[in-house]
Amino acid sequence: MKIVQKFGGTSVADISKIRSAATRVKSEVEKGNQVIVVVSAMAGVTNQLISYCQEFSSNHNMREYDVVVSAGEQITSGLMSIALQDLNISSVSLLGWQIPIFTNDAHAKALINSIDNAKILKHLDKGEVVVVPGFQGVTKNREIVTLGRGGSDITAVALAVSVDADYCDIYTDVDGVYTSDPRIVKKAKKIDKITYEEMLEMASLGAKVLQTRSVELAMKFDIPLRVLSSFSDGPGTLICSEEEVVEKEVVSGIAHSMDEAKITLVSVEDRPGIAASIFHTLSEYNINVDMIVQNVSEDGSTDLTFTVSKHELLSAKDAVENNKEIKWRKLLIDDDVSKVSVVGVGMKSHAGVAMTMFKALAEKNINIEVISTSEIKVSVLIKANFTQDAIVCLHEAFGLDQVEDSSQ
Ligand code: ADP
Ligand code: ASP
Ligand code: MG
Questions:
Q1: What helix, strand, coil percent values describe the chain, rounded to 5?
Q2: Which atom of ligand 2 sits closest to the CA of residue 150?
Q3: Is 46 within 8 Å of 72 (Cβ atoms)?
Q4: Does the pLDDT value for residue 149 go beyond 50?
Q5: CATH 3.40.30.10: does it fit domain 2-173?
Q6: Which one, of 150, 172, 153, 151, lies nearest residue 161 by Cα?
Q7: CATH topology of 2-173 equal to that of 255-397?
Q8: Does the CB atom of residue 150 touch ligand 1 within 6 A?
Q9: DSSP secondary structure string for all residues of 148-167
Q10: Is the CB of 134 under 6 A from ligand 1?
Q11: Nearest to 181 by CA among 9, 336, 395, 405
C-alpha cells in the first residue's frame, strides 16, 4: 500500500521525538508499505520565525516572510530523513520546490495548483521513504510560498491525492478527534468515526486538530484520513464518508473560535441595495464575512451586524467607513466575543437542536448576540469570557460527556 504519514510540530519537537516518529515510519515500511512522510516545523519554531519578521515591522514584505517561515519545515525534513537513515531505512528529503508542489502567487496563504509526482514515485519505487516538508510550495516563477497556518495538513492530503495513496495518517499530540477540544472540556470523548462533512464544519468553526482545507481536499478525493497520537498507540479517529458511519449522532461535537470580531452599523438607511453595497466593499477589501444579522426596520432605518476575523477588524472598519454610498448613525466594534457551535449530521433529520442549545445557554445566563445556522450546525456569538462555560454546558446538554468508569 501507499501511505502518507504526517507529523505535527509537537511530534517532532526535539531529536528524541523525531527519532520516535521515525520508528513509526519504520514499522510501516516493514509492513511492506511505500511511505511519504510530511513534517511540520518543530513546535514553536514557526511562531518564532514569524516574530522575527514582525520585529522589523508588522507590514513586512510577504515574499521574504515566506522565505523565512518556510525554513522551519526544511530543517525537520532533513532531520527526519537522517533519523530514518540512522534506523537503516533508505530515505530522501524533497523540498516543495524540488518536487515541485506548484501553487498560486498568494504569499502566506498560497493554494496548491498541481503536484508533479514523478520524482516522488521514482524514489518510492526504489524502496525509499520520501520526506516532504509541509506548509511550503513554489510558484511558476520559482518563488517560495507557504500555505497558511496549519498548512502541513494540506501538504499531506494533497500528496496523498497526487500519488493516489490508500490513506493519510495525521499524527499529533491528542489520540484522535474529540467531541470538543480535550484541553478545554475534561469530559470530552474521543470519536471513533466522523464524516468528512462534520469534520469540515468542526475544523472551519475552530477545531484546529485538522486544517480546514485539508479536510475539504480529503472529502473531494475520498482519501481516508486518520488522526492518531504520536505518543501512544491506539486506533485514533477515522474521517470518512457518511455511508461508512452507521451510528449518526444528532450532535457529534462542539467547536469554538476566539478569532471573532463584531461590527454593528446603527441606524443604517433601510432600502434595497444597502447590504449589497456594504458587502461589495468588504469583498473588494478581500474580507471574509461570517455571521450576519439585520434588525427589523423601524422608521426607515435598521441596525446591521456582521462578524469578521479579529485580524481583519480594522481593515473591515476602514472598508465600511470608506463606502460613501451609505449612511449610518454609529459604527460599533467589539472584539471581545467568541463563536461556539454545535455540529452533527443527525441534525438534518432531527428538530430541536437550536432549542436545546439556546435553553442550555439561557440557564447559564449566557447572552446570545448573533446566531447562524447551516444544515448540520448551529453557531452563536457570545461574550468571550463565557466561552468555556458555554462549551461545557452544551457538552452536557447534548449528552456528550464521557461516562465515568465506576469499575475503577
Ligand atoms: P499539530 O501540531 O500536530 O498539527 P495542532 O496543535 O494543530 O497539532 O492540533 C492538535 C490540537 O488541536 C490538540 O492539542 C487540541 O488541543 C486541539 N483541538 C481542538 N479541538 C479539538 C478536537 N475537537 N479534538 C481534538 N483536538 C482538538
Ligand atoms: N508550521 C506551520 C504552522 O505552525 C504549519 C503546520 O505546522 O502545519 O502553522
Ligand atoms: Mg495542526
A1: 35, 25, 35
A2: 8
A3: yes
A4: yes
A5: no
A6: 153
A7: no
A8: yes
A9: -TTTHHHHHHHHHHHTT-SE
A10: no
A11: 395
Atom of ligand 2 nearest to the CA of 8: 7
- Expressed in angstroms, the distance from the first to the final Cα of the chain is 40
Domain boundaries, the chain: 2-173, 255-397
Q: Is the preceding omega at residue 100 within 30 degrees of 0, hence cis? A: yes
Mapping DSSP to helix (H, G, I), strand (E, B) and coil, where does residue 318 land? helix
* φ, ψ for residue 56, nearest 5 deg: -80, -50
- CA of 298 from ligand 2 middle (Å) equals 48
- The pocket of ion ligand 3, defined by CB under 5 A, consists of 8, 150
Q: How far is CA 228 from CA 29, 236, 265, in A?
A: 18, 5, 45
Helical ranges in 102-195 per DSSP H: 118-125, 152-162
Q: Is the CB of 173 under 6 A from ligand 1?
A: yes
The answer to whether residues 177 and 199 touch, using CB atoms and an 8 Å cutoff, is: yes
Cell numbers placing 230: 504520536
- The average confidence (pLDDT) of the chain is 95
- Three-class secondary structure of residue 399 per DSSP: coil
Grid cell locating 270: 433601510
pLDDT at 121 over 90: yes
pLDDT of residue 408: 45
Q: What is the rounded average pLDDT of the residues 83-89?
A: 98
- Domain spanning 255-397, CATH class: alpha beta
- Cell (9 digits) for 399: 449528552
Residue bearing the CA closest to ligand 1, atom 12: 209
CA distance 212 to 47: 20
Residue 252 · residue 200 · CB < 8 Å: no
With 60 as the cut, is the pLDDT of residue 407 above it?
A: no
Residues in contact with 352: Cβ distance below 8 Å, sequence separation at least 6, in sequence order: none
Kindly tell me the burial class for residue 146, based on how many C-beta atoms sit within 10 Å of its own C-beta (0-12, 13-18, 19 or more). Answer: buried
Ligand at shortest distance from the CA of 172? 1
Condensed to tens digits (0 to 9), the pLDDT of residues 271-315 reads: 889 999 999 999 999 899 999 999 887 788 899 999 999 989 999
